[in-house]
Design a protein that fits this description.
12 strands, 3 domains, elongated, alpha+beta, seven-stranded mixed β-sheet, membrane, 21% strand, Acetylcholine Binding Protein, Chain: A, transmembrane signaling receptor activity
Length: 463
């Protein structure tokens, strides 16, 4: 046999491999098929990913186009519509009454919102407060169709470019205008809000000063009724006033000395008819009424309570021994203290015929203080009557008679108890009379003091 070539040897081995072991050939064919399927799956997956990325890019592009349309194109269109609407509304003169028929009045509804009470002077009756007024009306000349202006249903106009009601404070102090703008910025930032159906409204804030009815009868538990009167000077029936919303007090801030009494707010609308040469006209006036009351704790602790303690201490002067020599000085000191507190109380009360009950109470205490001081001097004179003899006047005889009547009762009581008392000396007699007089004055003024407190407390309890 000759030597086989390499190609022939390979064929021979392949034949032997095929003839001897056929199963590996079948396995190889299966592997080739699975590899082909995997390749096709990978191609399919890759195509899916590419298509998904392409779809996502298309979606993102569409979203970007929509956003650009909404914020750029629509914004430009909306801005143009806002300008057109503003031009349409401002073409109406601010001096023209917002009525198609100029003979019809404009009904203005007013709401008052109290912010805080800054100060109240009960002497002059001036109330300083901050508040906001809200005005609402219907403007027949400023209506529009929202579909013609890209769906705009409301807009705002500066207060100087449109019609606003001219109202004034009837009981204002220093000024009567409601529009108390402090600077130009306040004027420029105040706007009137309009709806497409013509409903309009705006709010103004300010500090106001009005006069109130001062009533200090029940000081320091006094209450004062304050009324904010608004009126219009239009004599051609141009404005009618109403207040369906009334007064809003829930957001008000209480003052350290004054507070608004709950459920005291009321609203009244009145009108006055004026007859001109040929026609008659009606002027409306609206009144916002509320009650302010004093925070009584401070004046009670600093004025009323010290006066009561001083009055109680004053009649205790009869317990001091005459020989101590302090009766007169103590009594005059308390009298001057009562005068000082009367002066302090009178400075807080108005000088009018409306007298406070506390003033009457102080006057009674002052009279009793003078009477106590006088009787203290008389008691000292009784005590030293044997040392410094004086004529027996009417007062001496009255006190001596009262002592004798009381002394007889004591003697009768002592005779029952088989007791005796030696009153032969005149010096001892006048000292006993003075001691009896001190006890009588102490009891008398104590009863008067209790009656004063009961009467004063009963009157204040009926507020």
């Amino acid at each position: 046999m000759g030597v086989d070539s390499p190609r022939r040897q390979n064929v021979h081995h392949a034949i032997i491999f095929v003839e001897g072991r056929t199963e590996p050939v079948k396995s190889c064919n299966k592997n080739q098929k699975s590899w082909g399927m995997e390749i096709r799956k990978k191609k399919l997956r890759w195509n899916t990913i590419v298509n998904a990325d392409l779809s996502m890019n298309v979606i993102i592009l569409c979203i970007c186009l929509i956003v650009v349309w909404m914020f750029v194109v629509q914004g430009f269109i909306l801005h143009t519509d806002v300008q057109k609407l503003n031009e349409y509304l401002t073409n109406v003169s601010k001096y023209v009454k917002p009525r198609i028929n100029q003979l019809q009045p404009v009904n203005v509804d007013i709401m008052l919102s109290m912010n805080t009470i800054q100060d109240y002077d009960e002497i002059s009756g001036n109330l300083i407060f901050t508040a906001s007024f809200a005005f609402f009306w219907n403007d027949e000349l400023k209506m529009w169709n929202p579909y013609l202006y890209n769906g705009i249903v409301s807009t705002q106009l500066p207060i100087l470019q449109t019609w606003v009601p001219a109202l004034f404070l009837q009981n204002g102090v220093n000024q009567n205008s409601l529009y108390t703008f402090s600077n130009i910025m306040d004027i420029e930032t105040t706007v009137v809000t309009y709806n497409y159906n013509g409903n309009a409204g705006f709010i103004i804030f300010g500090q106001y000063q009005i006069t109130c009815e001062s009533d200090v009868t029940h000081f320091p538990f006094d209450e004062h009724v304050c009324t904010i009167s608004l009126y219009t000077i239009d004599i051609l029936n141009g404005i009618s006033l109403s207040s369906e919303r009334g007064i809003f007090l829930d957001a008000s801030i209480a003052n350290a000395e004054w507070t608004i009494k709950p459920n005291s707010e009321n609203t009244f609308v009145t009108n006055h008819t004026f007859y001109l040469t040929t026609t008659s006209t009606t002027q409306d006036k609206i009144q916002f009424s509320f009650t302010i009351k004093r925070e009584y704790l401070f004046p009670f602790l600093n004025i009323i309570f010290p006066v009561i303690i001083l009055s109680f201490s004053h009649f205790l002067v009869f317990l001091l021994p005459v020989v101590s020599g302090e009766r007169t000085s103590f009594s005059f000191t308390l009298l001057l203290s009562v005068v000082v507190f009367m002066t302090a109380a009178s400075e807080q009360l108005p000088p009018s015929n409306n007298i406070s009950i506390f003033n009457i109470f102080l006057l009674h205490l002052f009279v009793f203080s003078i009477l106590i001081t006088t009787l203290v001097v008389f008691s000292i004179q009784l005590f030293y009557k044997d040392t410094y003899p004086t004529e027996n006047g009417v007062l001496f005889k009255a006190v001596l008679l009262l002592y004798v009547c009381f002394h007889k009762t004591m003697v009768a009581d002592e005779s029952i108890n088989n007791q005796s008392e030696d009153d032969n000396k005149e010096a001892q007699l006048w000292k006993k009379v003075a001691s009896f007089f001190d006890r009588f004055c102490l009891f008398f003024f104590f009863v008067c003091f209790l009656l004063q407190l009961i009467v004063y407390g009963s009157v204040l309890a009926n507020i």
